[in-house]
Amino acid sequence: MEVPILPGPIHYEWTIIKPDGSTVSGSGSAGTVLADQPGTYSCTFTAETNRDCAPQESYTVGPEMATVPPVTCDAQLSDGGGSQGDTIQLPLTITNTSSCEVTFDWQVTTSGAPTVTPNPASGSITLQQGQSRNTPLSVQIAANSATGTETLTLTVTSGGTTVCNDTATVTVCDQCETFNGTQCEPKPLCTSCTPQGSTTCSPPGYACDGSGACERGQNLIAQIVGQLGLTYANQSTSGCLAGRCGAGIQFDVTGVTHSCDSIDMAGATVTETATNDHGCVAVNVQTGPGCGVNCGNAINNCTDTYQMCALPSSYPPGGCTETVTQHLYVDGHLVETHTIIFTITFPGGTCTGSVTRN
């Protein structure tokens, strides 16, 4: 009599050896593994039957080999430069040179100084085979950064493994310099700039000197003297005390003008020299000590007075003209020249004086 022997259950076990030698094992009729490494994967399957009666059999298949092509890419980060406080854009391009779609992770790191900050500093991008993508990288240069060259490193990974990289340089120029594509060069004279540290006035009133440095207004006078001027107010004329003949003129010097951005001349001194031609009197004209320039280019409490008064008998009987030539300076640099003209006449035999300034 024959008794049928039913087949027992079949049990499957599998082992996959990855390219780096690590293994992944499991059971079941199918084995899976994440192909996160390029190279050759080896797979071995074992099937066993567990029956109540013999034969109990075990079969091993493999190893079978499968090759995963490597993930490759091309990374390009362009050089650039800018001034302290600038934000610049650097082209960042990643190209997938693999044979399939790949998701890449990228990161940009800096060497530390000068102080530049990529934004964003990292990201993720999925590319089809042969696809490229340009992602402009924004780089902020700190306003207080030292000048010089910063190295940026672009690292591109896939599955935690670096697959391509590139480096670029950021040239940091002084705030009074501009990056021309290859090097720093001075910005024009009178370009506004922000000084480092404490200042006398607010706003500070500094500007570029045309040689790459940020200077306060007083230090730029020699370079911009041709555009300096003075403002006046409250001009008036007067006569002389009883028994005297002549005239006087008085005016306030109120400020310094210029066209050099918003610089401030605080700390400078306005002075004058004056000469007279002795057409009416033999004495020499006298000048004052000068006036200081304050924040906002203002000159306060600075009054100039010119007066010629004398006994009528001291003038030539036919009248006369006294010309005073006035030179005004800012920190020793000639800014303006004026003439003050006193006129003495004797209409009807009476001494009369007048004065004009131009």
SSE blueprint:
Elements: E1 10-17, E2 23-27, E3 39-49, E4 58-68, E5 73-77, E6 80-83, E7 87-90, E8 92-96, E9 102-110, E10 116-119, E11 122-127, E12 132-134, E13 137-141, E14 148-158, E15 161-173, E16 177-179, E17 184-186, E18 192-193, E19 206-208, E20 214-216, H1 221-224, E21 229-238, E22 245-257, E23 269-276, E24 291-292, E25 303-310, E26 320-330, E27 333-345, E28 352-357
Parallel strand pairs: 6-15
Antiparallel strand pairs: 1-2, 1-3, 3-4, 5-8, 7-13, 8-12, 9-11, 9-14, 10-13, 14-15, 16-17, 18-19, 19-20, 21-22, 22-25, 23-24, 23-26, 26-27, 27-28
**How helix-rich are the residues, as a percent range?**
under 10%
- SSE string, helices as H and strands as E: EEEEEEEEEEEEEEEEEEEEHEEEEEEEE
Strand order of the largest sheet: 6-15-14-9-11
| DSSP summary, beta strand count | 28
- Classify the beta-strand content into a percent band: over 45%
As for the number of domains, it is 4
Could you please describe the fold and organization of this structure?
The protein is mainly beta and 358 residues long. The chain is built from one helix and 28 strands. The strands form eight sheets. A five-stranded mixed beta sheet has the order 6-15-14-9-11, with no helix packed on it. The chain has a five-stranded antiparallel beta sheet with strand order 24-23-26-27-28, with no helix packed on it. Strand 16 and strand 17 form a beta hairpin. The mean pLDDT is 90.
